[in-house]
Structures are given as C-alpha cells and as structure tokens.
C-alpha cells in the first residue's frame, strides 16, 4: 500500500445531500368559521330561553316592591291618624306623610311607573296599575 498523507486519511468525500421539499409543519392558532358559528348559535339559543324568564322575574319584583310601598303608606296613614287624633274618614296629604321629619322620609313611587293614591284612613292606598297588574294590597 502506498503511504498516504495524514490529511488524506481524515478526509471523507462529500455525499450527495438529499433535497426534500419544504413543508410547513406549524399550524396557525385560531378557530374556523364553522366553530365560531356553532358557538354563536348556542349563545343565541341560550339567550332565547333566558330573556323571557328575566322579563317575568322583573315584572314580579316590580309588583312585590309596589305592594311593599303600599304597605308602608298604609302604616304611615295609620300612625298619622293615631298621632293626630284623626277619624277613619280623614285623608292625609302627601306633606302629612312624607318628609325628613314625617313617617316616610322620601315619597315612594311605583317601580312599574304607576302612581299611588293615598285615600282615606279606613281604606287601603292604591296603585294606578292595581287591577291590571296585581299591584294591590
């Protein structure tokens, strides 16, 4: 064998490089249009179920708040009649019942936009929405 130089022994010929087509291996994060449409449809369905219940609950709470206001007015009338030595046929005015030094500090109002009628001591106060929406004592 022929003696070869040292640099020749450490040299290896270059092999052919494999040429492959580059492919994108990453995927963009996000949702497809179909996925978004399904989510929107589910939210719309839940809203269609929930909104009528919210309206019903709001109406019921306005009714109970109005009845509570009527009870307050009735109690203030009774107290006014006792303290002022009035008869059952006397009717207090708003200034007799409402004020900082009176029986009710602020004049109550119906949460459903009705108006209150105080009436005589022997009759119950009433709301203008009384018979139609159940705002009665």
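-> sequence recovered:
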């Amino acid at each position: 064998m022929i003696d070869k130089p040292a640099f020749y022994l450490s040299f290896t010929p270059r092999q052919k490089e494999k040429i492959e087509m580059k492919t994108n291996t990453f995927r963009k994060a996000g949702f497809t249009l179909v996925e978004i449409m399904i989510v929107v449809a589910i939210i719309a369905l839940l809203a269609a179920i929930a909104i009528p219940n919210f309206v019903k609950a709001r109406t019921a709470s306005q009714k109970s708040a109005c009845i509570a206001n009527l009870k307050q007015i009735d109690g203030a009338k009774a107290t006014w009649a006792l303290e002022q030595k009035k008869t059952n046929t006397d009717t207090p005015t708003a200034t007799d019942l409402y004020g900082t030094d009176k029986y009710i500090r602020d004049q109550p109002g119906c949460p459903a936009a009705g108006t209150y009628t105080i009436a005589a001591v022997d009759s119950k106060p009433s709301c203008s929405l009384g018979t139609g929406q159940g705002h009665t004592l």
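The CA atoms of residues 55 and 61 lie 10 Å apart.
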